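Per reviewer request, we include the raw input and output of the structure prediction for the construct analysed in the revised manuscript.
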Amino acid sequence: MIRSRAARDRAKNICEMFGAREPPINVHRIAQELGFLIVEHDFPEDTSGMLLIREDAKAIGVNQHHAYTRQRFTIAHELGHYLSGHEDFSVRGKQEKIRVDGQFNWADPEQRQEQEANEFAAELLMPEKLIRQDVAAAGPIDASALAKRYEVSEQALWIQLVDLKIAVEYARR
């Protein structure tokens, strides 16, 4: 996988801007301070969330049936799309721009944007600096404990550990 340094740098800047220095990162507060209303909605199972910008209103919808950890990742993911400028969210007249994310079509040319939004979300929720500190202090990696500490799924945690090569570095000890 090609990593997006720009997406990760944007997430680091957001953490700095909002004083997020320890887990769990309060992604709800960050979204709200950026002007987004978070709305839980009865989406189909394969829809994680959506980003809506209409005139002066901004909202992130999350699937109310998904786990809390998944909802947090969805909020961070949608912020990644917004802050990365993946769509022209400007509104003209009575139009509105909606972005719906669900299951990804890996053959779609927009997949790079999805990957970038995922990397933004991973870095926002599990900042590299904090993860490295926690792994160094903990001894053997306890994925369950770390996932609880960061309020993310174990799958998201392992993806972050692999992407940052922390899992490989730890295995070499």
